[in-house]
């Protein structure tokens, strides 16, 4: 599917795997933002079985960028929206752009159904040039998902450019924050994976 990397399934995945969907707000599929997400997913894999899918909003094409309302999107974009709406855990990841998240990232969530994320766990992740950009998590991203009545993970994750070697996260403090954030909601995520769920796209 355009703009969506194939659902990568961990080798130890079972029928009770947690369905994790990453919404990538970076223009690049390979970036510091996705390096941060990779660290999150690696940590999460050590806690419980997961299956992962990724939506790259910048690669969704004119059927996405030209859509004003949900009814305007192409079938491919509709499938990407449903994928995000059907996740057990949504990872919303974006680089800081002019003090906030990129417009394309916001446009994706403008098209998400208002109630589709209610009570859904959402992990917030962001990258920026300096530590002062971390404010985007609390002042921009968390209010966005509060509108959806989502269950944002209390500990959000930020990494500045100095925490990386290329796109590989090296800073142990960020890894520690990831571990703390996921440990706080581990029981909730396990219950999501093993509970009765409506199949994605149903």
From TrEMBL:
Gene3D superfamilies: 3.40.50.360
Annotated protein name in UniProt: NAD(P)H-dependent oxidoreductase
Bilayer-crossing regions: none
Residue intervals of the NADPH-dependent FMN reductase-like domain: 19-163
Keyword Cell inner membrane: no
Assigned keywords, A-Z: Flavoprotein, FMN, Oxidoreductase
């Amino acid at each position: 599917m355009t703009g969506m990397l194939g659902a990568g399934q961990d080798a130890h995945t079972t029928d009770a795997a947690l369905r994790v969907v990453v919404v990538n707000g970076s223009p690049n599929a390979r970036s510091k933002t996705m390096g941060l997400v990779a660290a999150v997913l690696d940590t999460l894999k050590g806690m419980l079985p997961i299956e992962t899918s990724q939506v790259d909003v910048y690669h969704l094409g004119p059927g996405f960028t030209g859509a004003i309302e949900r009814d305007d999107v192409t079938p491919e974009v509709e499938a990407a929206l449903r994928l995000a709406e059907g996740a057990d855990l949504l990872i919303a990841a974006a680089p800081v752009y002019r003090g906030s998240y990129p417009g394309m990232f916001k446009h994706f969530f403008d098209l998400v159904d208002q109630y589709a994320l209610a009570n859904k766990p959402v992990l917030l992740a962001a990258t920026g040039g300096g530590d002062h950009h971390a404010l985007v998590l609390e002042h921009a991203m968390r209010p966005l998902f509060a509108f959806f009545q989502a269950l944002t993970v209390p500990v959000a994750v930020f990494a500045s450019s100095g925490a990386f070697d290329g796109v590989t996260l090296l800073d142990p403090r960020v890894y520690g924050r990831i571990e703390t954030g996921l440990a706080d909601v581990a029981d909730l995520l396990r219950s999501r994976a093993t509970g009765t769920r409506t199949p994605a796209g149903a």
